[in-house]
Amino acid sequence: MSTTLDPVLETETPDEKPSRTAWLVALTTIGASLMDLLDATVTSTAGPSIQRDFHTSTSALQWMIAAYTLTFSVMLIAGGRLGDVVGRRRMFTIGLVGFIASSVACSLAQSADVLIGTRAVQGAFAAVMIPQGLGLIRAVFPPGKVSQAFAMMGPVMGMGAMAGPILGGLLVDTLGWRSIFWINVPVGLLALAGAILVLPRDHEQPGHKPKLDIVGLILASASLFLLVFPIVQGREANWAPWTWIMMGATVPALAIFALHQWLRHRAGRDPFIEPTLFRKRAFNAGLIVVLLFNAGFIGTGILGTLLMQYGLGFSPLHSGLTQLWFMLGTMLSMGIAQKFAPAHPRRVLQSGLALLAVGAAASALTVRHFGADLNSLTVGPALLVAGFGVGLCFTPIFGVILAAVDDREIGSASGLVNSFDQLGGGIGVAVLGTLFFDRAAEHGLFGAAEYSYWIAGAALVCTWAIAFFVPRTARSEDQLY
């Protein structure tokens, strides 16, 4: 009989309140997620300073930011499977130790190439660490009470998102860009102490033992590389024929990946991605929505950072403080979304997408009107509207998309949605960053920013239209967790 490694479950009744240990487990896993979030936000703020320090190309700047999210997105499903096979407590600890070590390596990097490589490794360890949190929390919280832990996560992550750009700017301005990676060490060590002291031990449970699809992982990674590498490098290569050949090769590479997944599924073996999910039109539409939403959200954020630091000469701290307009809009709208999303989840999602598109268009018009006279006040209204739209999207997006799948598919579908969420951020940085730097040479930084904002707005309008194909209803929080 095969076995699956799961944390030991305590015997609890449905009416039992979560124990003190359960809350400590939640704090430990949420702390790790917060460290991951802060790492992503502070790095975006520090990007221009890193580029100037290394005297490197703009494509290298894009890779410094995107390498983390792209590796994270591909490895996320594999990380979840490793938790099933090896044990969630063990994989959480391995991922956390690796994340701390790779953060130290990032801070010590002496070249852009080394930093890009260590950022990719950092993303891989984050992908091993983050997926274990749900299983660990479910092991110690009473049935039906898991959503209480995730209700705590929302405000914590929201505050982290607000603090990230400011913290990053403050650290870069006072201690230099290397400090943004050193900050992970004390936070990580606190989380590691919690992991050692309070996480439930792994225990073998009877049942099917999942296998990791290594070939599927390699094929998925190759497909992503064929798409993203020429997008980032194409401008510096003057869009040579090989860039178009690589992008074109993405289609057959994905076809081979899909065939491999179907054959494994037909043979009764564990695929990297459950192929039956792609027969569901509403779920496929949802994947496109989450991909494009995050590409627009993260991509326009990077555009703002590039414009403020390169075009306006803002310091990292100044640009981080300016982003407070965006964060304020997000926090204001999340309360509204929590009130209306349970009854009208798709409408709330589409309202958010529409406002994010309006925010991108308003940013384009603001750049055109003010140009070099832009300041933290004149960019405020556009950032506030965009942030308001993002806050409306955050609450319903996962529940709406996962309403399209069966209960038995929820685990695989959830991992895939999270992967597309991360992948969208990496693609947004690659595409909008390339558009910005490509146009800047001929049309200047402000013309490039205006053009890129219009492209982002158009993509978000398309995302709004695609959202008509996702379910009208959403899964409840307890069904998701």
Automatic annotation (TrEMBL):
Residue stretches spanning the membrane: 21-40, 60-79, 91-110, 116-137, 149-168, 180-200, 212-232, 244-263, 283-312, 324-341, 353-371, 383-404, 416-436, 451-470
Primary location: membrane
Entry-linked Pfam families: MFS_1
Stretches assigned to the Major facilitator superfamily (MFS) profile domain: 25-475
Record keywords: Cell membrane, Membrane, Transmembrane, Transmembrane helix, Transport
One term under GO cellular component: plasma membrane
Subcellular location: Cell membrane
GO MF term set: transmembrane transporter activity
Alphabetical list of Gene3D superfamilies matching this protein: MFS general substrate transporter like domains (1.20.1250.20), Multidrug resistance protein D (1.20.1720.10)
Topological relation to the membrane, as annotated: Multi-pass membrane protein
Name assigned to this protein: DHA2 family efflux MFS transporter permease subunit
Source organism per UniProt: Nocardia stercoris
